[in-house]
Amino acid sequence: MITVPDTGRGTAIFRLTPARCNIFVISRQGRVILIDTGIHADRGRVESALSRKGIVPEAVVLTHTHFDHAGNAAWLSREYGAEIVVNAKESESLAKGDTPIPSGTLSFTKGLVSIGRRITPVFKYEPCRADHVFDETFDLGRYGLDGFVMHTPGHCAGQSAVIIDGEVAIVGDSLINIATVKIFPPFADDVGELLRSWKKLLATGCHTFLPGHGSPVSREALEAEYEKRRKG
Known about the structure:
Layout: E1 12-15, E2 24-28, E3 31-35, H1 43-53, E4 59-61, H2 67-70, H3 73-80, E5 83-87, H4 88-96, H5 107-116, E6 132-134, E7 137-139, E8 147-151, E9 160-164, E10 168-172, E11 176-177, E12 182-183, H6 191-203, E13 208-211, E14 217-218, H7 219-231
Parallel strand pairs: 3-4, 4-5, 5-6, 10-13
Antiparallel strand pairs: 1-2, 2-3, 7-8, 8-9, 9-10, 11-12, 13-14
């Protein structure tokens, strides 16, 4: 269970339901958006959770468009009228329903990538047209939130993070925090860009970082890992 205390401004942030990636709900004064969508096979549990919690999302922000994060974007747009928000560097892939697999950063993930790139049809998903495409930042004020989406490349070219109330950052696959992998993602197209994006994330002043997979990362943990990687 991933729990995040409400921000000092009363914004609620929680994980919708277990899925292939973390799908986060951001809610304030009755207005709700989702961050990421899971894969097609998650659709039933996502629909059940939305119904059970009485959620009709105004928008879906995609941190990026890999199949496990964007697999239900078209369905959420069609069924709930949710506006789809994505970085410009990801919009074409989203429209095709086909996003390149990122490079591996570890020996075993490099091997997995070489296999995965030979079976790419497995990673395709329903194409989706974005309603809002941004380059560097996107203001979430239109949804009643004090926050924005910012471009944080590295994991992939259009990776982005959602910053809420200057306290919590939802960072997609820029960070990972599962039992076997801590903070540094096993997949990234550009490690130099990733580290520069970590610096940007720390500059927001946020104290909690919510990854696309696994549990929250503290500011102290990210700072320590950043310093180690930067000096290494």
